[in-house]
Amino acid sequence: MHAFTALVRKPGLKFPQALSEHPQKNNIDLAHALRQHEGYVKALQEVGGKVEHLPPKDHLPDATFVEDTAVLLEDKILLCPMKEPSRQEEVESTAAVLKKYRDCVTLDSPATLDGGDVMNTPDAIFVGLSKRTNLRAIQALAKLTSKRVIPVAVTKGLHLKSATTFLGNDLLIIDPSRVDSSNLKQFDWIEVTESESYAANCLAFEDVVLMPAGFSSISDKIRAHGLKPLELEMSEFEKADGSITCLSLIIPRRAAASR
């Protein structure tokens, strides 16, 4: 029995034109990205996931970053009203698949939300107030869940989860220079420096943590917390302002089996 289902989408032909502020954004290698994506899929399968490939969208440069299109809540899926016009069609294509797992809802304008700004923890949902997600969306999201919804200002970078991710057991990995961390003090931290900031986005499955390769000091800190880092090559996605969590929508087994 699979522990979860992961929805993924391979980078399309226009992936090298993805929205990005990275200095190497003009040097994205599609063939290399496809190989790295295959490695990512293999890792999801290794940790017990059933991988479901969404239909390719070659005309949508950012469509591989499926996390941004939706947020899984306790009993429903929130389809994200994305701010960037070039990405809004991605939500429609993802919704067609998500509807078989749970009922789907959306938010009215002027709310804007990217899934990369939503960090779900057992007791609360932290939502980045960022370039892509506004306060109206955070207020509306709070009405759709029984958990506390807590805004976190993103001071540098694209999304909240570009700066911090939840590893379980009250543990965050975080670059505190990129967010207002005042609402995150109740957690234990694995702190990363500015030069290690890309490693702040990880994806945890019980005791295994998927993380970008090339950050040996961070992987050592993860091991020191009793976790097992699984390092993945992510260079082409980093150039596109994408990270480990961006490449999948994780649907827990109980949710996948409920419809």
Describe the fold and architecture:
The protein has six helices and 15 strands. With 259 residues, it is an alpha/beta fold. It has a single domain (4-256), classed as L-arginine/glycine Amidinotransferase, Chain A (5-stranded Propeller), CATH 3.75.10. The strands form five sheets. Strands 2-1-15 form a three-stranded mixed beta sheet. The chain starts with a strand and ends with a helix.
Keywords:
single chain; 259 residues; L-arginine/glycine Amidinotransferase, Chain A; 3-stranded mixed sheet; 21% helix
Short description:
The chain is an alpha/beta fold and 259 residues long.
- Number of helical elements: 6
Enumerate the spans where pLDDT stays under 50 for 5 or more consecutive residues: none
Q: Give a count of the beta strands, DSSP E runs of length 2 or more.
A: 15
CATH class bucket = Alpha Beta
Look at the structure and name the CATH superfamily: L-arginine/glycine Amidinotransferase, Chain A
Please state the second-level CATH architecture. Answer: 5-stranded Propeller
SSE layout and pairing:
Elements: E1 4-8, H1 30-46, E2 49-53, E3 70-72, E4 77-79, H2 88-98, E5 104-106, E6 118-120, E7 124-129, H3 135-142, E8 148-153, E9 164-168, E10 171-174, E11 188-191, E12 203-205, E13 208-212, H4 216-224, E14 228-232, H5 235-239, E15 249-252, H6 253-256
